[in-house]
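seq:
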Amino acid sequence: MTFGLYLLLTIFMMLLVMVWLRSLVVRRLKPDRLLGELRGEVQGLVAELNQTGDRHVSLLEDRIDTLHGLIRDADREIDALRLLLENVSVSPAAQTSPAVEPTREGVAAPPVESLPEEAEPLEPEPPPPREEAIADTVRRLSDQGFSPERISHSTGMAIGEVELILSLRKGQRWR
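struct:
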């Protein structure tokens, strides 16, 4: 009888161990947990992609600002040259009979006009001064609770510049 009791007790213990192992395996391979881990990894990858995208956008915005500055400088130079051309006057003697000089090929060269002596070369205008306290304005607006997007829109700055100013102050990156 004791042998039968030990055998029953052993079978019962084995069943308990099997149920416990099965529940452990099911818990470890639980689909919700695996999905949670995968979602966490995907969110991490998305965050990295967003940071890389923000960095690239910031670089592009800086290059666009540089190009806008170059275009403004070129427009000023063009305007200065147009004004200089308008100020150039031809002398009355040159108006009646232009001086034509023959060339080696026998074709006359166009008359050469010189600039009047009283015309002064025009200096290009310096770019308009940018507010010195723009960083203080950005910080003040942030302290008042405005988002970086709103600050960017109201100051006319690129969002990357606003985020840079705010991150330099607080040591964090805005999202």
